[in-house]
């Protein structure tokens, strides 16, 4: 039996926890794009009945990470260049919406957000300098998620987090979706713009960064 790199779970574990574990394995590339995920094998390895696993697979299908093919089974989605363009396009819309909310706040509040973003940007740049691309990908997403979170709009954040897994898949599996290593330093520049720049400057910088 093929091992899937999953950790055995107690029978009382919920389908949500199963989905979380499978999602992580999809994001980190253990399950490759186009690979079939066998419900029976996963159930066996997790020591669960097939019900919770089936629900988890349905959840991930709703999130767009899996695709069900009639009479064939469930497969990891294969993102096309068009998919990548759509994902980054929606990210830009949501991030600029968050930036606009933040930049309408008093200068002190803008500086608080900028400082939080600087902290992530510094860690990201350090990870890139060490060629730790696993950390780079996660910190890149943390930077942008922090921006959206700091807007204080819970629905904006909810919409944004639905793109998180797909974004990480883009970074890891499609070379054109992630900028050259030298561009990671642009995160620090974007943080500074949130603190002191104009909305036009922010809009231009984020557009350049999120155009793939």
Largest sheet entry: 2 strands, antiparallel
Low-confidence stretches: none
Structural class label: mainly alpha
The portion of residues assigned to helices is: 55-70%
User: How far is the N terminus from the C terminus?
Assistant: 39 Å
Number of distinct beta strands: 2
CATH fold topology of the largest domain: Four Helix Bundle (Hemerythrin (Met), subunit A)
CATH superfamily of the largest domain: GntR ligand-binding domain-like
Instruction: Enumerate how many helices there are, as a single number.
Output: 10
Q: Label the overall shape.
A: elongated
Strand arrangement in the largest pleated sheet: 1-2
List the helices and strands and how they pair.
Layout: H1 15-27, H2 39-46, H3 50-62, E1 66-69, E2 73-76, H4 81-103, H5 107-129, H6 133-149, H7 154-161, H8 164-173, H9 186-196, H10 199-210
Antiparallel strand pairs: 1-2
Describe the structure.
The protein has 212 residues and is mainly alpha-helical. The chain folds into two domains: 62 residues, Arc Repressor Mutant, subunit A (Orthogonal Bundle), CATH 1.10.10.10; 130 residues, Four Helix Bundle (Hemerythrin (Met), subunit A). Helix content is 65%, strand content 4%. It has ten helices and two strands; from the N terminus they run H-H-H-E-E-H-H-H-H-H-H-H. A two-stranded antiparallel sheet has the order 1-2. Strand 1 and strand 2 form a beta hairpin. Helix 4 runs antiparallel to helix 10 and helix 6 runs antiparallel to helix 8. The mean pLDDT is 87.
